[in-house]
Amino acid sequence: MASGMACLQFGTDAFGKEILELVPATPAAAPSETVAIAITAAPSIGDRDQDDHERAAGGATEAAAAACLGEGGESMPYKGENTIVMMEWEKPYMRALVDALAITEESRVLEIGYGIGYSADRIQEFSPRSHTIIEPDPVVLARLRGWAAARPGVRIVEGFWQTALATLGEFDAVFFDDFPLPDTPDSSDLRGPASRWHAFIDLCAAHHLPVGGRITG
């Protein structure tokens, strides 16, 4: 896909399986340049002592997260070639990542990106104390609102995690599934998958995870 504005669209593939795809925005469609799902995995950070939390806090972490947004706080245009954000065959994988969080009825859960809802469905099976979902895309938000209407423990936070995290408190379990901006030779270099993931982990460890908190994604 060429550089430029894009938005999300639900659909099906050639086999009738549901997909979430990034497509070029049209004048009639609300643009959405950041999407919610990445097909990448990283290990849970496991337990961290207080020193780890203190070392993770710092200006460099906040700067790395801020670099994922444009100068005006908007999402940067997607410049990669992959347009498939999520596919139905990923469902077992998403469920396994959620299972690794060891969610209980006392858990406060944060989810970054709703996508098709596979991870959210699995999280709800554990009946956590709270379930907060950060989602920026208007197309995905429309589906998310309908899903959350019958689940009173779910809180929707509209916006990008880079700015929304600062408004939130602590969570025992965090599921991160943000669609990354690929590395490019221009000013988007710092917005690649690794930097986004590591910036997010450091922000959570510094400000949003108690000792023993868990992250998967």
Automatic annotation (TrEMBL):
One of its GO terms (cellular component) is cytoplasm. It comes from the Eukaryota. Keywords: Methyltransferase, RNA-binding, S-adenosyl-L-methionine, Transferase. GO terms for biological process: creatine biosynthetic process; methylation. Residues 42-61 are annotated as: Disordered. The keyword Ubl conjugation does not apply. InterPro entries: KsgA/Erm (IPR001737), RMT2/GAMT_Mtase (IPR051038), SAM-dependent_MTases_sf (IPR029063). Pfam families: RrnaAD. GO terms for molecular function: guanidinoacetate N-methyltransferase activity; RNA binding. The keyword Metal-binding does not apply. SUPFAM superfamilies: S-adenosyl-L-methionine-dependent methyltransferases (SSF53335). PANTHER family: GUANIDINOACETATE N-METHYLTRANSFERASE (PTHR32379:SF1). This is Uncharacterized protein. The lineage of its organism: Eukaryota, Sar, Stramenopiles, Ochrophyta, PX clade.
